Amino acid sequence: MNFTSSIFSTETMIVPGGTETILRGGRDLFPLLPEALHGVRRIGVIGWGPQGRAQAKNLRDSLAGTEISVTVGLRQGSASVEDARSHGFTEENGTLGDWLAVAADSDLVILLIADAALAEHHREIFDVLKPGATIGLSHGFLLGHLRASGSDFPVGHPVIAVCPKGMGDSVRRLYEQGATINGAGINASIAVHADPDGHATDRALAWSVGLGSPYTFATTLADEYRSDIVGERGILLGAVHGLVEALYRQFLINGADPVTAYRRSTESVTGPIARTISESGLPAVRAGLSEVDQDLFDRAYAAGYGPAREIIAEIYDEVADGTELRSVILADGRLATRPMSKIGGSPMWSHSDAAHALRDSEPAPVDPVTAGLFVATMIAQVDEFAERGHAWSEIVNESIIEAVDSLLPYMHARDVAFMVDNCSRTARLGTRRWGPRFQAAYEQLALPGLDRPADPALIKGFLDNPVHEALAVAAKLRPSVDISVS
């Protein structure tokens, strides 16, 4: 997608079939933020989850020395108040207050409370907004809910989104690393849903730059929530959980000891496979294998692509028609009295410490079957998004870059199970619903197909896939720093 800015110098990126406009970020752009925000003097961040905490702190730091303040708004009695105070947002200095009071006094109101809570309480927030205040989102979930309920955003208010392609901890941690490496951060998409005053695009770009995004691209709010919610149920988390559970069991059945089975499944995905894709692209995973292992990779890829594509298409349909969104809202009341159980009790996770202890002396290799199934699932999501009309920047960020540069490094440090049990409620619900579907598909359809020769057309389709060109272009914008997860 293309956009223009009256403040920032944009670039044209050549992608398969056309061009896209992008903005390259960096701290050298921070002096432009007050002008780009066009009249915004107070930013209200509503919520203090991982994204709220990270975005409030990043924007405060980026706008230091200007006349623009960043204030956090929380509900009375919120358990997050003390943590916000510990990070310097306090009632005494005017940067912490009641959520509705902060919303009423802010020129840009960034809504970062949980999806189900936002669906329930958005009208209360809309009712107190000052005339012309900009509504900011980091997820299109609310748009999906409004459409499903026959409602809309209030007239006369700019509606924009800045959606970091990584979890809140990544957004903050890489921003801090950017203090010494200009441009270090998490890529973000922007969406302009309503622009009554003509300045919405510049405000969205300023917000993205202020978060430290090294690479900002454009999407629509509808495309964002579809790709984001599908992605977290697919290759970003749900499919990864299903894959490693299926492979761990398969390797045990084939005679591996538990630690070896763990290393060949989980460690292989979160370690060498993720690093190879991040540094050299998807074909490099296959190219780095021996001839015998390439054949295993091809068999796994060919056996896994079809089943994975079917599930991702099903997820996409249920997100697009509102079914998946309604399930999140329905769960909110149920989980108020009956919290979700954790999946970290699965037997395989008891072997993580022993597997981690071998990292320095005996790094986990790329397992060809694991690699084939993982890459097949990633390409299946890429192809589904492309068929549904998503822009290439969105496709490579939501299906590849976010996975290998943000989420998988955290899973490598803390385990896939830890990630599932500690992510957002929306992502956690989706992973628990769709992860077992992927696991069953791998166990029942893909793994039994390893005995069959690979379909040459599927392998050619992988090697010739236009996503490699799009990813190579996007990779040139990647800062020369890996996220620190220590």
Tally the structural domains: 2
Work out the radius of gyration. 22 Å
Unreliable residue runs: none
The major beta sheet can be summarized as: 10 strands, mixed
Taking all residues together, what is the mean pLDDT? 95
User: CATH H-level name of the largest domain... which superfamily?
Assistant: N-(1-d-carboxylethyl)-l-norvaline Dehydrogenase, domain 2
**CATH structural class of the largest domain:** Mainly Alpha
Distance between the first and last residues' Cα = 36 Å
H/I helix tally? 21
For the secondary structure, the number of strands is 10
Mind explaining what this structure looks like?
Mg(2+) 2 binds at residue 228. Residues 23-219 form the KARI N-terminal Rossmann domain. Residues 220-362 form the KARI C-terminal knotted domain. InterPro entries: 6-PGluconate_DH-like_C_sf, 6PGD_dom2, KARI, KARI_C, KARI_N, NAD(P)-bd_dom_sf. This protein is α/β, with parallel strands linked by helices and 486 residues long. 56% of the residues lie in helices and 10% in strands. It has 21 helices and ten strands. It has helices at 33-36, 50-62, 81-86, 99-105, 115-128, 141-148, 168-177, 200-211, 221-233, 238-253, 258-280, 283-287, 291-320, 323-337, 352-357, 368-387, 392-414, 416-422, 425-446, 456-463, 467-475; strands spanning 11-15, 18-24, 42-46, 69-74, 96-98, 108-111, 134-137, 159-164, 188-194, 215-218. The protein has a ten-stranded mixed beta sheet, sandwiched between helices. Strand 7, helix 6 and strand 8 (159-164) form a beta-alpha-beta unit. The longest helix has 30 residues, at 291-320. The protein is globular.
